[in-house]
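User: I'm writing a short report section on ligand binding and want a predicted complex to refer to. Could you take this sequence and pyridoxal-5'-phosphate and write out the structure as tokens? A short remark afterwards would be nice.
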Amino acid sequence: MKAASKSELYRKLPSVDELIRTPELAALIAREGRRPVTEAARDVLEHLRTEIAAGSLHSLDTAIAGLPIAVEQQMREATRYSLHPVINATGVILHTNLGRAPLGQSALDLIREAASGYSNLEFDLADGKRGERDVHVDRLFRKLLNLPANASGSAPEISTIVVNNNAAAVWLALNTLAAGGEVIVSRGELVEIGGSFRIPDVMAQSNGILREVGTTNRTRISDYEKAITDKTRLLLRVHRSNFEITGFTEQPALEELVALARVRNLPLVEDLGSGALLDLHTLGIAGESGVAESLRAGVHVVTYSGDKLLGGPQAGMLTGRTDLIDRMRANSLFRALRVDKLTYSALEATLLAYVKQDHDAVPILRMMRLSKDDIAHRAHTIAKNLQAASHLTVAEIDGESVIGGGAAPSAVLPTCLLAVSAKHRTADELLATLRTADPPIIARVADGRVLLDLRTVLPEQDAAVEAALRSAANAGS
Ligand SMILES: *Cc1c(COP(=O)(O)O)cnc(C)c1O
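Assistant: Sure. The structure tokens for the complex follow:
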């Protein structure tokens, strides 16, 4: 058969109108509407014209017969959600790229209830007047932080406000309490988190002036003391989150900083990063002090994330002395940083689970509490079911899950991993195939095998992991 010339090929292409009048596409339009189908038809024809122009298409016979199917596929592609679920088999519980903390059922329920209609977000039902949106969670934070009465017998007045994330919380604290003046920070705490949050940059944006003291590995309380002048507005302590300094190190105890702040009458602000509400020692995780601990020690204001160790929605909390928190609320930019009813719903439901001590209702706490045996049991079931998949080799090996999200950088939880290799495919190919599953599965490769950690896989997703591994094995045959 003689190859058709380019002009012949162009002539053979139907117009968009002709194409969408075919019975298949007329039926598709009846189901999905004219516009998405017409756009998809235009895209498909445009693509064919590009191929003809490039000389890569020599006959249209098969392409024309397949046009309705190509249009339907193109339409599905174009109207698919960009943001969709994935299965996290990395074993990193707070994976920032995978959306950090999954929300529990009660949080999802309250989001649906509060957001599908109107709510009392800023409405005081008792007196029928305008209210404050922070009241919904402030009462729960007070209950959870359960601070002891101070020396004068009355409980210290502590309040919490919520902003978009912890980066915003740090900015608001610095801008409100220190704009135009100096903030003293240890050189060992000038951290960068995730590439875009750097203490010196946030400081500059807040109009605070960074006054660095000490050295990278050693800072003494006397370094802070010597740096205090009449320009000083604030002492700032920053959690190191994603790294540790080991060896010849020194850092003043929190109590020393509290005492210095008190004597010099300066506020002490601590960026906790993760901000645990639960004593993590009970989960075998050391070195991560919680929100209550810092406040009890006398820190005036702490800032922390909603979607790290707290296990709720993306948010940033400022908890501390009510007079200082009220100044932040009065900052004219507070309104620009505030969060919506979806966030309050998720946060309130998450906090209520803590109040009820229903820790398994908070997915990340449940994941942290899973024992190695629980995980090994699930891994074994999958491995056993895959024994017949002759193109796959599945082993159960010891490994470690990590918390991630800048929390307890050195803490690991013992786990059982599925180590998978395929006969005709490299580990990287297998990994890439798992990412095309529905939902996509995110794992990692080590020593030529794909490693999957079920700690971060929701139990109801185990079957999907097994099915994806089985079909990845077949894809290689
Ligand atoms: C994670 C982290 C932040 C940023 O928090 P976001 O909620 O992601 O904005 C700031 N400071 C520290 C110490 C952190 O660990």
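A remark for your report: The longest strand covers residues 392-404. The mean pLDDT is 92.
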